[in-house]
Design goal:
Number of domains: 4
CATH class of the largest domain: Alpha Beta
CATH architecture of the largest domain: 3-Layer(aba) Sandwich
CATH superfamily of the largest domain: Response regulator
Structural class: alpha/beta
Bound molecules: S-adenosyl-L-homocysteine, iron/sulfur cluster, FE3-S4 cluster
Strand order of the largest sheet: 2-1-3-4-5-6
CATH topology of the largest domain: Rossmann fold
Helix content: 25-40%
Largest sheet: 6 strands, parallel
Length: 467
């Protein structure tokens, strides 16, 4: 494993992070030990798991895909909706059962749920078989926590403050082709329904020089695609003095010459014309924007604290469509925000009918303890919310299918990344504008970009053949 700039990183960090474990020899203690990791939630968590894996392998563990075979189970959790929470506690039941047979099994809960006080209390009171809890700010303390672990619950959850910690390219990346690159942590937007600012803390941008060096490193190591990651990427740099903004960062990264650059998620409020111009100008900034709408009712948007009106959103959407060739736009929508009326909901459908999205992630509003919306009165029944979700999904899927069908007969550049989940004889990958394509072709083409003719289309994927 390459560990560039460790000493420099140590100097730069203002945090009192214990880097000494890099010099300790853990390899005997954890030699032949196996870990099993399960990741819930967004790309931020997926990338955090890549970091957790690298740390564990650095101290002697190896990965297993079978929980029964493991000595350490790690659950990297999400707190964004109640069902994410329920899934984790459901799975913990299985862990508890396994621990009865395997007394030395170490069970570890981390990620966004670990940042919730109510969850930590629940663990203390009801789930005493859990051995380690660490928060989203304490990932690099895991090796020490494992070493220290005696026979008591070891909890290490920091407050939501904290500096950006640079530990170099210490990730066991899932892919050899596409890589996640954090550009910022946390979020300052405090949308009234959302728990993320509480679990991930205030916005902290990484230094642009560190991001640029990481992208150069990835390019040198054969990566074809990077995705700049953050809850609110286009607010990049606003929290530090003398830093470039997101458009400038995007341009600097584009100039490095890696084949494909993506970013997720951008907030409509921070979207600038400059950003659109950069995406339009460079061939390697991909024509795909995830632009969360959340609601199409101005009344609800205000209650959500989203900082834009539907008129402003649609204006931005039209600009993106006009200026960026072949751009695809997807969105996130919440139905059933407290006291959302039928009229509010129909306004959301109107925006969907105007924007005809390429895809949308749709959710029923889920109250999260500690957020302002959770204490708002709500008279709308769950049944009604479920019906709205279904009506919305029908329209969303109709437009996804229509947009995909328009591509039949066209030639798309596809970065082939994996064996297709649907058919092991095929490979799959994404077009420049982020459409999933299953392609009948030689497996040796994994990791390459190919011209693919689209021969069929469904709502969520395309079929193609090599041109
Ligand atoms: N930072 C991103 C996304 C954060 S979470 C953004 O601002 O768009 C991903 C999505 O989960 C959100 O876009 C929202 O649609 C949904 N979400 C967040 N909190 C939720 C809640 N309490 N109930 C239901 N959906 C929620
Ligand atoms: Fe949550 Fe809003 Fe921040 Fe997105 S921008 S993470 S929805 S608070
Ligand atoms: Fe979930 Fe945390 Fe991401 S709450 S959506 S894993 S930032």
């Amino acid at each position: 494993m390459n560990l560039p700039n460790m000493l420099e990183a140590k100097k730069r960090s203002k945090n009192k992070v214990n880097y000494e474990y890099f010099n300790l020899d853990y390899s005997d203690k954890f030699k032949d030990k196996k870990y099993y990791i399960r990741t819930y939630g967004c790309q931020m968590n997926v990338h955090d798991s890549e970091e957790i894996k690298a740390l564990l392998e650095r101290i002697g563990f190896s990965e297993t895909n079978t929980m029964e075979e493991s000595d350490l189970v790690i659950l990297n959790t999400c707190a964004v909706r109640e069902n994410a929470h329920d899934k984790v506690f459901g799975f913990l039941g299985r862990c508890k059962h396994l621990k009865k047979e395997k007394k030395d099994l170490i069970i570890c809960l981390c990620g966004c749920m670990a940042q919730e006080e109510s969850v930590v209390n629940e663990v203390l009171n009801k789930h005493k078989y859990i051995d380690i809890v660490f928060g989203t700010h304490n990932i690099n303390e895991l090796p020490n926590m494992l070493l220290e672990k005696i026979d008591k619950l070891n909890i290490n959850v920091k407050s939501i403050e904290g500096d950006v910690i640079e530990v170099g390219n210490l990730y066991k990346r899932d892919s050899k082709t596409s890589a996640w690159v954090n550009i910022m942590y946390g979020c300052d937007k405090f949308c009234t329904y959302c728990i993320v600012p509480y679990t991930r803390g205030k916005q902290r941008s990484r230094k642009s020089i560190d991001i640029i060096n990481e992208v150069k490193y990835l390019k040198e190591n054969g990566y074809k695609e990077i995705t700049l990651l953050g809850q609110n990427v286009n607010a990049y740099g606003k929290d530090i003095e003398n830093e470039i903004n997101f458009s400038e960062l995007l341009e600097s990264v584009a100039k490095i010459g890696i084949e494909r650059i993506r970013f997720v998620t951008s907030h409509p409020w921070d979207f600038t014309d400059e950003m659109i111009d950069i995406i339009a100008k460079y061939d390697n900034t991909m024509p795909y924007i995830h632009l969360p709408l959340q609601s199409g009712s101005d009344r609800i948007l205000k209650l959500m604290g989203r900082r834009y009106t539907t008129e402003e959103y649609i204006k931005l959407y039209n600009k993106i469509k006009e200026k960026i060739n072949n751009v695809a736009v997807t969105t996130d929508i919440i139905v059933g925000f407290p006291n959302e009326t039928e009229e509010d909901f129909e306004s959301t459908l109107n925006v969907v009918n105007t924007c005809k999205y390429d895809g949308a992630f749709t959710f029923i509003y889920s109250p999260r303890i500690g957020t302002p919306a959770a204490s708002m009165e709500d008279k709308i029944s769950l049944k009604e919310k479920e019906e709205r979700l279904q009506r919305l999904n029908e329209i969303v899927n109709k437009y996804s299918l229509e947009n995909n069908q328009k591509l039949i007969g066209s030639i798309q550049k596809v970065l082939l990344t994996d064996i297709s989940e649907k058919d092991s004889k095929k490979l799959c990958g994404y077009t420049e504008n982020m459409k999933l394509v299953n392609v009948e072709c030689d497996k040796n083409l994994i990791g390459t970009i190919q011209n693919v003719e689209i021969i069929d289309a469904k709502s969520f994927s395309l079929d193609g053949i090599i041109e």
